[in-house]
Amino acid sequence: MLRNALGKAFRFLGYTVQYGCIAHCAFEYLGGIVVCSGPSMEPTIQNSDIVFSESLSRHFYCIRKGDIVIVKSPNDPKSNICKRVIGLEGDKVCTSNPSDFLKSHSYVPKGHVWLEGDNLRNSTDSRCYGPVPYGLIRGRICLKIVFSTKMNGTIFV
Amino acid sequence: MGARVVGTCGAGGWRRARWRAGRASWAPYHCRMLRNALGKAFRFLGYTVQYGCIAHCAFEYLGGIVVCSGPSMEPTIQNSDIVFSESLSRHFYCIRKGDIVIVKSPNDPKSNICKRVIGLEGDKVCTSNPSDFLKSHSYVPKGHVWLEGDNLRNSTDSRCYGPVPYGLIRGRICLKCRTQLGLYENVEHAAAHFNCYSLNFCLLYTP
């Protein structure tokens, strides 16, 4: 009886580990659903919007200017942030605030990207913490799920 | 296995019937062969994906063997040394000052670098070169670490590219594999008159 119970427990544990690993690799290499929170990407992505992020672009180094990416926060490794890529390595970006009289520019260093939120007035991004290393990028947002009153659920690209 | 020939008449009727029967037995045999081959291929692919995912998660969450190259960590780690890195520390945020870590390079996301953690967030670090007359210090920002190689004269580290975000850390080196070639006179297991490689695992000393 004990052997049966132990055997069942081990088999259950084995299946859990197996499918957990496969699910983790699916999220890591393919993509997953993400719930965004915060006002820094309005009006493109509102608070509590559900988006789908794919991870193939970052593995094949195909992130382009203008993509919206999910990035591990440089200031807090336990959280992720969602910003738009304004400049890739070597690009010239404007580092001063829009309200400043004198504009200052700088070049994005090698292996880094320059991120800014769409809601420039309410976004802490590369203008605060500088260029972000490419290695922190987790995925690229490709779909946003929008619920409208006419239909139950619509997916907009 | 073939179709039973029933009720055909006429001069060539039995030939047509035999041809139909032969064709009926030939088609299922080839379909079965194809289905078996496809089934085996899919099963093989399934096992490959399954064990590939488990191996990837083992490297990601437990650790793995790493071959280090370059002179920037001498004398602690020489060129072509084999080390074992564990990934639990970084997931539980237990990286301490003095640990040797493997980090995704901030300048080149396709390569990894191996340095020692000199300062954690909030620590005061010396950012000037040892040869400078005036020393300059700065504080490590939140969420970053300050890395330096042990071979300070031949190491590009945080003194060049600044503090590195904690999120780039891949693992912490805990063991170094040391190989020796030679005759052994007092080995418990191996015969004394054979040359053999002996793998000695030694714990890396971290000050």
UniProtKB/TrEMBL annotation, chain A:
<dbReference type="GO" id="GO:0006627">
    <property type="term" value="P:protein processing involved in protein targeting to mitochondrion"/>
</dbReference>
<comment type="similarity">
    <text>Belongs to the peptidase S26 family. IMP1 subfamily.</text>
</comment>
<dbReference type="GO" id="GO:0004252">
    <property type="term" value="F:serine-type endopeptidase activity"/>
</dbReference>
<dbReference type="InterPro" id="IPR000223">
    <property type="entry name" value="Pept_S26A_signal_pept_1"/>
</dbReference>
<feature type="active site">
    <location>
        <position position="40"/>
    </location>
</feature>
<keyword id="KW-0472">Membrane</keyword>
<dbReference type="InterPro" id="IPR052064">
    <property type="entry name" value="Mito_IMP1_subunit"/>
</dbReference>
<dbReference type="GO" id="GO:0006465">
    <property type="term" value="P:signal peptide processing"/>
</dbReference>
<dbReference type="Pfam" id="PF10502">
    <property type="entry name" value="Peptidase_S26"/>
</dbReference>
<keyword id="KW-0378">Hydrolase</keyword>
<feature type="domain" description="Peptidase S26">
    <location>
        <begin position="103"/>
        <end position="142"/>
    </location>
</feature>
<dbReference type="InterPro" id="IPR019533">
    <property type="entry name" value="Peptidase_S26"/>
</dbReference>
<dbReference type="GO" id="GO:0042720">
    <property type="term" value="C:mitochondrial inner membrane peptidase complex"/>
</dbReference>
<keyword id="KW-0999">Mitochondrion inner membrane</keyword>
<dbReference type="InterPro" id="IPR036286">
    <property type="entry name" value="LexA/Signal_pep-like_sf"/>
</dbReference>
<keyword id="KW-0645">Protease</keyword>
<feature type="active site">
    <location>
        <position position="83"/>
    </location>
</feature>
<comment type="subunit">
    <text>Heterodimer of 2 subunits, IMMPL1 and IMMPL2.</text>
</comment>
<feature type="domain" description="Peptidase S26">
    <location>
        <begin position="16"/>
        <end position="97"/>
    </location>
</feature>
<protein>
    <recommendedName>
        <fullName>Mitochondrial inner membrane protease subunit</fullName>
        <ecNumber>3.4.21.-</ecNumber>
    </recommendedName>
</protein>
<keyword id="KW-0496">Mitochondrion</keyword>
Automatic annotation (TrEMBL), chain B:
<keyword id="KW-0496">Mitochondrion</keyword>
<keyword id="KW-0999">Mitochondrion inner membrane</keyword>
<keyword id="KW-0378">Hydrolase</keyword>
<feature type="domain" description="Peptidase S26">
    <location>
        <begin position="135"/>
        <end position="173"/>
    </location>
</feature>
<dbReference type="InterPro" id="IPR036286">
    <property type="entry name" value="LexA/Signal_pep-like_sf"/>
</dbReference>
<dbReference type="InterPro" id="IPR000223">
    <property type="entry name" value="Pept_S26A_signal_pept_1"/>
</dbReference>
<comment type="similarity">
    <text>Belongs to the peptidase S26 family. IMP1 subfamily.</text>
</comment>
<dbReference type="GO" id="GO:0042720">
    <property type="term" value="C:mitochondrial inner membrane peptidase complex"/>
</dbReference>
<comment type="subunit">
    <text>Heterodimer of 2 subunits, IMMPL1 and IMMPL2.</text>
</comment>
<protein>
    <recommendedName>
        <fullName>Mitochondrial inner membrane protease subunit</fullName>
        <ecNumber>3.4.21.-</ecNumber>
    </recommendedName>
</protein>
<feature type="domain" description="Peptidase S26">
    <location>
        <begin position="49"/>
        <end position="129"/>
    </location>
</feature>
<dbReference type="InterPro" id="IPR052064">
    <property type="entry name" value="Mito_IMP1_subunit"/>
</dbReference>
<feature type="active site">
    <location>
        <position position="72"/>
    </location>
</feature>
<dbReference type="GO" id="GO:0004252">
    <property type="term" value="F:serine-type endopeptidase activity"/>
</dbReference>
<dbReference type="InterPro" id="IPR019533">
    <property type="entry name" value="Peptidase_S26"/>
</dbReference>
<dbReference type="GO" id="GO:0006627">
    <property type="term" value="P:protein processing involved in protein targeting to mitochondrion"/>
</dbReference>
<keyword id="KW-0645">Protease</keyword>
<dbReference type="GO" id="GO:0006465">
    <property type="term" value="P:signal peptide processing"/>
</dbReference>
<feature type="active site">
    <location>
        <position position="115"/>
    </location>
</feature>
<keyword id="KW-0472">Membrane</keyword>
<dbReference type="Pfam" id="PF10502">
    <property type="entry name" value="Peptidase_S26"/>
</dbReference>
